[in-house]
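Supplementary notes (optional reading)

For those who missed the lab, this is the record we used. Protein: Alpha-2-HS-glycoprotein. Length: 331 residues.
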Amino acid sequence: MKLLLLSLSLICIASAVHKKPTGRIVDCDSPEANDAALTALHYINANHHHGYKFVLNQVEDIHVLPETANGEVFYVELDLLESKCPWVSPTPAENCPVRPRAEQAVEGDCKVKLQKQNGNFTVIGVSCKSKPDSAENVFRACPTCWLLAPLNDTQVAHAVDVALADFNNGNNTVYFKLHEIGRAQIQGPANNKVQVEFIFVATNCSKEQALDSCVALTGDDAQYGSCVGSVTQLPGAQDEELDVQCAVYEPQQPQVDPSIPLVPAQPSVVHGHFHHNLRHSSLGPHSSESNSAEKHLAFHSKSAIKRSLGGKHAGPNVLVRPLCPGKKIFF
């Protein structure tokens, strides 16, 4: 009997020793969680060189490891929404309008590992993915709206060519070429209207020298712009109706931030894709750190513990405060 009790005692001690330490509890809607989320969002947008900037919609989960000599480590899960600002736009993400559900919004899911030292956050690992909203949600918000079309659809490519040619034929002195297509929808009862959004880039040619061999300007001379337009094939007519609005952005000096490695922007290649997935972005060199953030948050989401207002484990009759997930900002 004594031997049995001794064995049980040793098992309990071993379990206590190997129990994973838990840091302090942080509310997903707290200012500290918001600071961590905005630091992560800034990092993600600075390294997402395709499509559109993202905005914060919700802090879904957050866990903090015990503080060490190097500060604290935060594991944060974020729900993001695509904005209407192309990634080349100088408009800060916080000032960008969110893509409404009626336009088939794109949602991003990111798991981020950050380090906090002296009150400042630094991103040390990111894992992201994104997807368009479901057709059911789109039609619930707008029964007559149209879904996203593949970015490499032939009708989409034609509409972009027509819109960009019209822009180049304007008062520009520089020849601009296509950098990437951002979004597209094929509309109308006979699929006769194509709505497109795309990014263009200045080249080393004038518009009179427009050739396929013209090279996009890079570095300090790089200059981008974006267009939103539609091309409609009129019934019974050979002519097309064009409506396009474009904006050219002033060359932007890259922001120097040691925590954000600058990744050169490269034209994207899409094969039947409907949007530019965050999964394909160059979000930093810490792939192992990204995996650890994803595994850590996955572990805690499966073994969540209710906690009381004082931060201790809550009993069955204790009123608990919902620390996470946080409130949704948009939808």
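If you only remember one thing from this example: Residues 149-248 form a domain with the Nuclear Transport Factor 2; Chain: A, fold (CATH 3.10.450.10).
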